[in-house]
């Protein structure tokens, strides 16, 4: 199990409230339970609790999500039961990712959903 990856998925769910596979009213309960369980694991660790609260308060701030991910990872590496909970939440509720594609072409560009070759070249003006 990649503890960092599941920690990141749970950090995003806890911060943004975005979960998949459940109705909207149920999602609020799922997120609340995740947040409360994380608070319980963090116990009296003020820095980790602050990381959770800051991530919830500023869900679009990648640095704060990163701090929460680091705290979750640290605890998961020390507690196999908690790591298993993170993995279960990530598998069951993590929203599916999306792909964003930006193309800047000096000449011709052809893009197709499953048929694509990307050649990266350094821009001489950089």
Structure characteristics:
mainly alpha; globular; 5 helices
Characterise this structure:
The protein is mainly α and 126 residues long. Helix content is 60%, strand content 0%. It has helices spanning 3-16, 24-42, 46-57, 62-78, 80-93. The relative contact order is 0.18. The mean pLDDT is 82.
Roughly how many Å apart are the termini? Answer: 40 Å
Structural class: mainly alpha
Number of strands: 0
Count of individual helical segments: 5
Helix content: 55-70%
Chain-averaged pLDDT: 82
String of helices and strands: HHHHH
Largest sheet: none
Q: Low-confidence parts, pLDDT < 50 over ≥5 residues?
A: none
Fraction of residues in β-strands: under 5%
Provide a concise account of the structure shown.
With 126 residues, this protein is mainly α. It contains five helices and no strands.
Topology:
Elements: H1 3-16, H2 24-42, H3 46-57, H4 62-78, H5 80-93
Helix pairs in contact: 1-3, 1-4, 1-5, 2-3, 3-4, 4-5
